[in-house]
Amino acid sequence: MPGKFLTGDDRRAAARAEASPDSRSSANKRHKGQRAFRAWSIVHRWTSLVCTAFMLLLCLTGLPLVFGHELDILTGDAIEAPALPASQANARASYDAVLRAALNEHPDHVPQYMIWEPDDPLQPIVVTAPEADTPPDDTLSTTVDARTARPLGMPPGKGSLKFVLLKLHVDMFAGLFGKLFLGAMGVVFLAAIVSGVVVYLPFWRKVGLGRVRLKKKRRIVWLDWHNAIGMLTLAWALLVGVTGSINTLADLMLDAWRSDQLAQMVAPYRGKPPVVVRASIDAAVNTAQRVAPDMIPSFVAFPGTRFASPHHYAVWMRGDGILTSRIMRPVLVDASTGALTDSRELPWYLKVLLGSQPLHFGDFGGMPLKIFWAAFDVLTIVVLGSGLYLWLTRHNPRKGKAKRAA
């Protein structure tokens, strides 16, 4: 037989030559699949390493902020209105009286905003500052009893625990740069999630979703828990990551609205002198309610602030329901006459921003939703921590070679 005189190399060459095209095609597909898997593994490894520290910061600071009101009570910063006799329970002071009460507390300030929180409309917050365009970190807030127009106190200031947690969570005390940096980390986090799912798919198909091999080595058990909890929190992490990244663009979106839609609405006032004598706040709110009768006031922005113009009150109306509370419409009222100037629906990007905020903070469904949000926050911390552990305890090829050589 001729084959008996062939060398081993010759036989292998002949076998490769006789291989069918289908076999070669299957081998090529496997090779491409392996290369793609390695590429996704590299993407998951490095995107996770880049964002893990910052995601841990956001999860750790965001957890107590989910229970913001309860945190105020715990730290003694909560403001509660006193009980009134039944005859005064339905009394309401005018908005102008509420404003005067806040300004009497800070006579050298000018008003910036009057805000009605959805969960406590009887305690409006009046934000004042030395100038109308003073940055938010340098303003003062006064809570006023809407029934009696009496000041109740000031919400937590710069030195409070809640303020520190919020600043770390929003911009790490770095302003717009910090917000945009955290937004970029959010995008990297999303890439880590997607690549992690792709890397997990072969194990999922082979062994099953969420299986933890408890009898294996410790590192394998950690890996299985990392994968299982990661899949459990997948939808929540994607939701919070996307909405968080959107929220970091809030300043840029507001500037775009000011230079576009707001500039169009106040174009007739361009070049006019600033307002000296202002119309009644009650008149401005009444005008806004006639424009949007199915909505209620969310806040009033005073002339010269970022949410208004130098010549207008901007009464921001919102929906009066759980699902519509983030649907807002600004109504511009001439600050000198109280007459309507213009009102338009917000552009799509601000609608997206406003819709993303409750989805990110989980503050629209009461205590049950807060507990749900907090639980998934803790699980995400476990995923991040276990991923960091797996990286720190990874096998070092150099050490392995040294041991084998010895």
UniProtKB/TrEMBL annotation:
Keywords (alphabetical) are:
Membrane, Transmembrane, Transmembrane helix
Q: Does the keyword Membrane apply?
A: yes
Question: Ranges of Basic and acidic residues compositional bias?
Answer: 7-21
* Ranges where the record places region Disordered: 1-30
Transmembrane feature ranges = 46-67, 180-204, 225-246, 371-392
- Superkingdom as given in the UniProt entry: Bacteria
Designated name of the protein: PepSY-associated TM helix family protein
| Source organism of this protein record | Caballeronia glebae
